UniProtKB/TrEMBL annotation:
Pfam families named among the record's database cross-references: Glyco_transf_8
The keyword S-adenosyl-L-methionine appears for this protein: no
Pathway the protein acts in: Glycan metabolism; pectin biosynthesis
InterPro entries listed in its UniProt record: Glyco_trans_8, Glycosyltrans_8_dom-fam, Nucleotide-diphossugar_trans
UniProt-recorded name of the protein: Hexosyltransferase
Organism: Escallonia herrerae
Family affiliation: Belongs to the glycosyltransferase 8 family.
EC numbers on record: 2.4.1.-
Keyword field: Glycoprotein, Glycosyltransferase, Membrane, Signal, Signal-anchor, Transferase, Transmembrane, Transmembrane helix
Signal peptide: 1-29
């Protein structure tokens, strides 16, 4: 039997290779826009929930109504699956889910219609608004950090919440998209901020605070004095309770932007959007129990290795870090705690038959 020359063999090999390639699933990047999600159950208020009257044309409560819980999140295609799980977890564990208003910040260049439709299909009863965020507002202020995902302009939208949300929203709970709640968000929203604090968040005073700034920062007498007289501790900006009235009155956005402008002239930090928050707020944070941000479940910013829970009770699980539960589950490389995220995953796989 004569073996055909290599050149002529490609006549037989190429169709086979093409069939093999086409049999592989498309990558996440190409299928993000076509992700489909199941409709979530509808959740109802318990009998003792206060009533909220919506009399504004924008559907938001009047400024004197204090019974609504306002939740702000960013919304984009890359993290949409995480956002959907986070929304479901908030509603499922709330005693008054009908009293929650969601405020989603999306890039002005994103397909807002698709994002709105996706949310509305899975949560047809949800009261929400989508606010466009102009990437150019912050694009020129972003310095490269240790992980590309941290350099996304939308990651800085939290700096501008007080400008983006209506003035009728006076207090808001800000949440990242890579987390789930297992407790009533009203408890977190009720955190007292006192007379001085603009925001509340769990603090971690055992962390090495000097790590978040460069030697250039600490070697400058004028810069290092920024924290003089302040009992500074690290806090994670993925879970915050923010008094927007105080933020607006103190013009905190301008303060953050000024630090970002300085960073462009001389590198004083490495970790994306976090250090400006530390510079402005650290040492003046209203306390929140650590149970409300069991963070770091995504591992570090380089390898995303599995991690255990911190000691103590848990109200919120946060996969901050490189590893995201949906990506690890899809790759069959999940960590043990990713199984706690999976029940909130609303992704509709192509293998599910529609009735």
């Amino acid at each position: 039997m004569m073996i055909p020359p290599l050149a002529s063999s490609w006549h037989y090999i190429l169709p086979l290779l093409l069939a093999i390639i086409l049999s592989f699933p498309a990558t996440t990047a190409t299928t993000t826009a076509t992700l489909r999600f199941r409709e979530a159950p509808q959740f109802y208020n318990s009998p003792n929930c206060p009533s909220i009257h919506y009399d504004h044309s924008d559907g938001l409560p009047s400024s004197d109504v204090i019974n609504a819980v306002h939740v702000a999140m960013t919304l984009d295609a890359a993290y949409l699956r995480g956002s959907m799980a986070a929304i479901l977890s908030v509603l499922q564990h709330s005693s008054c889910p009908e009293n929650i208003d969601f405020h989603f910040i999306a890039s002005a260049s994103a397909d807002a219609g698709h994002l709105k439709l996706t949310i509305a299909r899975s949560f047809p009863y949800l009261r929400f608004q989508v606010y466009p965020f102009d990437d150019t507002t912050v694009a020129g202020l972003i310095s490269t950090s240790i992980r590309a995902a941290l350099d996304c302009p939308l990651n800085y939208a939290r700096n501008y919440l007080a400008n983006l949300l209506p003035t009728s929203v006076r207090k808001v709970v800000y949440l990242d998209s890579d987390l789930v709640l297992v407790d009533d968000i009203a408890k977190l929203a009720a955190t007292p901020l006192g007379d001085r604090a603009v925001l509340a968040a769990p603090e971690y005073c055992n962390a090495n605070f000097t790590f978040y700034f460069t030697p250039t920062f600490w070697s400058s007498p004028s810069l290092s004095l920024t924290f003089a007289g302040r009992n500074v501790c690290y806090f994670n900006t993925g879970v915050m309770v923010i008094d927007l009235d105080k933020w607006r009155a103190e013009d905190c956005t301008t303060k953050i932007v000024e630090w970002m402008e300085l960073q462009k002239r001389m590198r004083i930090y490495e970790l994306g959007s976090l250090p400006p928050f530390l510079l402005v707020f650290a040492g003046n944070i209203a306390p929140v129990d650590h149970r409300w941000n069991q963070h770091g479940l995504g591992g570090d910013n380089f390898r995303g290795l599995c991690r255990d829970l911190h000691p103590g009770p848990v109200s919120l699980l946060h996969w901050s870090g490189k590893g995201k539960p949906w990506a690890r589950l899809d790759a069959n490389r999940s960590c043990p705690l990713d199984a706690l995220w999976a029940p909130y995953d609303l992704l509709q796989t192509p293998y599910v038959l529609e009735s």
